[in-house]
Amino acid sequence: MQLQRSFTSILVLLFLLGVGACSGSSTGDAFNATGGTSATGGNAGTAGTSGMGGLAGSTGSGGVTGTGGSTGECQLIQCAGRVTLCGDCMDNDGDGLIDNDDPECLGPCDNYEGEELLSGVGGETGEQCKADCYFDFGNGAGNDDCHWSRSCDPLEPKVQCTYDGGLLGGKDCPDTQSQLCEDVCVPLTPNGCDCFGCCTFPELAGAGPGGDDGYVYIGSESGCTFATVTDPASCQACTPAGSCLNTCGRCEICLGKPDIPADCFPGTGGSGGMSGGGGSGGSDGGARCPVGKQVCGLPGDDPCAGGSFCLTGCCTEIVVE
User: Fold this and answer.
1) Which residues touch 139 (CB under 8 Å, ≥6 apart)?
2) SS3 state of residue 254
3) Cα–Cα 20 to 30 A to 61, which of 2, 102, 170, 201?
4) Which residues, listed in sequence order, are joined to residue 310 by a DSSP beta bridge?
5) pLDDT tens for residues 172-205?
6) How far apart are CA 116 and CA 292, in angstroms?
7) What CA–CA distance (Å, rounded) separates 289 from 269?
8) Residue pair 89/78 in contact by the 8 Å Cβ criterion
9) CB distance 221 to 243 below 8 Å
């Protein structure tokens, strides 16, 4: 009996050793499986890399960076070889709006993204009353050949510049600007402004001399903003230079006018389309943008291509100098 018990004990011991050996083998397989899971983790990392958001953004011209660049919504833009605050794809004034989505940006050459309607890049020549293109980059007429004097304006928007009618028609106040001024400055001038920063707003309809639309000098030193355009203490009245004026049409987006009437959209009353489907204007005619310019700025509009800026509803190409 003792021998039988000893034999039984040996069998139990051998069985337990066998189970232990199998358990050790399973543990090894489990670690191997964990190693496989690690490899799976590596594959997940590869899948993340395949997003390539940065590279996709970098294909656009103008050096796209940042979140806007990755989605194609913002393109860095240079003016005269410089990237200004309104072309850097950043919300510099913290109002939640970036560059051409911020109405306080008066164009891609605007180096002031704050509340006041200032360009931040000049528009004066260095002489107290003389002015050049208000919306390009640089002081003086050397790069745009635009010439004007605040003394040509009977409304005297700058108190230091007394009106002198004898200047009209002369070099400082020409009847027409040169072709170079037209080519350089007019494309950068928002709808509703002349080349020298004299602009109208919807609130000024009928408020000008003789019942015409009123205009104010947005470079007024006392702080002209969208909220103060009707306050003469903040925005001095001015007379637009008719030789270099980008008027505000009914079917155009303009300063202070971010929307247009519904009947201005193609196919809702315009002429020239079968069953209204090809109309290009509203009830009073007029297209949103000049021929050859892409519309932008309203829901459903395509974003502007790289190197261009959405300026009062139209994509404006900027030549990098």
Assistant:
1) 122, 123, 124, 125, 126, 132
2) strand
3) 102
4) 315
5) 999 999 999 998 898 899 999 999 999 999 999 9
6) 32
7) 17
8) no
9) no
Structural contact between residues 130 and 172, judged by C-beta atoms closer than 8 angstroms? yes
Between strands 314-317 and 308-311, the pairing is antiparallel
β 148-149/130-131 pair status: antiparallel
Beta-carbon-side half-sphere exposure of residue 2 (alpha carbons within 13 Å): 0
Q: How far is CA 99 from CA 85, 102, 161, in A?
A: 8, 5, 33
- From CA 241, how far away is CA 194, in angstroms rounded? 6
For 156-190, letters b (16+ CB in 10 Å) and e give bbbeebebbeebeeeebbbeebbeebbebbbbbbb
pTM tops 0.70, yes or no: no
Torsion sign over Cα 181, 184, 187, 188: negative
Amino acid letter for position 7: F
Decide: 308 and 314 in contact? Cβ < 8 Å.
no
What radius of gyration do the chain's Cα atoms show?
34
Digit-coded pLDDT (tens) for 98-134: 877 888 788 888 887 777 887 666 555 557 898 889 8
CA distance 119 to 112: 6
